[in-house]
Design goal:
- The chain has 262 residues and is α+β, with helices and mostly antiparallel strands.
- It folds into 2 domains: 137 residues, Fructose-1,6-Bisphosphatase, subunit A, domain 1 (Fructose-1,6-Bisphosphatase, Chain A, domain 1, 2-Layer Sandwich), CATH 3.30.540.10; 112 residues, D-Maltodextrin-Binding Protein, domain 2 (3-Layer(aba) Sandwich), CATH 3.40.190.80.
- Helices cover 35% and strands 27% of the residues.
- It is built from 7 helices and 14 strands.
- Strands 3-4-5-6-7-8-9 form a 7-stranded mixed sheet, sandwiched between helices. A 5-stranded mixed sheet has the order 11-10-12-14-13, sandwiched between helices. A two-stranded antiparallel ribbon has the order 1-2.
- The longest helix has 21 residues.
Amino acid sequence: MLSPLNLVDRARAAAARAADYVRSSAQPDTSGWSAKGRHDFVTEVDRTAERLIGDSLMSGGGAGRIVGEELSPELARDGLVWVVDPLDGTTNFLHGYPAYAVSIAAVLDGMLQAGVVHHVPQGQVYWAARGAGAWCDDHRLRVSPITTPSLALIGTGFPFKDLSRLDEYQRQFAQVAAGTAGIRRAGSAALDLADVAAGRFEGFWEQQLSAWDVAAGTLLIREAGGVVTDAEGHELGIAHGSVVAGNPAIHRWLLETIRDRA
């Protein structure tokens, strides 16, 4: 049965298995780091975690296909697709900085059905099922009620793979910083979006992310009463690109602010 709650259960079990493995793994020394691109690293921990997730999701003849950062990066949208980031925040993991997560989303015919973000160091499990709300363990999540930009705390991600738009980002950063209570950058987009859903951030933006970075977090925010689009204001689907998220009021302000500084 492919109900959203059933899909959440499968995703939670798979994420827990991967999180247990990551938690038990020592940070490899630099000889074990492989560079996928500029400032973008992968280790055997990432690859093994993704294999464990795949084995869990497909055990017992489980349905669907897996799209994942390390083993199967080609996007697919028809039928049941599992969108997986086995270790979001690899650089944090490598340095022992405690902000990294396992992120799994279930997508049926292009529509998000379930999402899980498992905060590995803290052991917290953020999850959402289509029509059933967003949760952290057994606590219902709601986006922040703060609607005044000057009181808002905003999450972001710095450009690090492609620096060609750094000047544009710096202009955006300056304008957002001038209009809000502060900006934070922890280095895991999945956890940043979970923070928006939980009301710790009023908003979040980043110029370029991959589908597996944001699919689960997108559903968390929507089910918590928030809004997630790309930088043009189009509803975010299962795609790579820009992300702007927040409660409805701060999302609208953030979208206008970064457009003014594009």
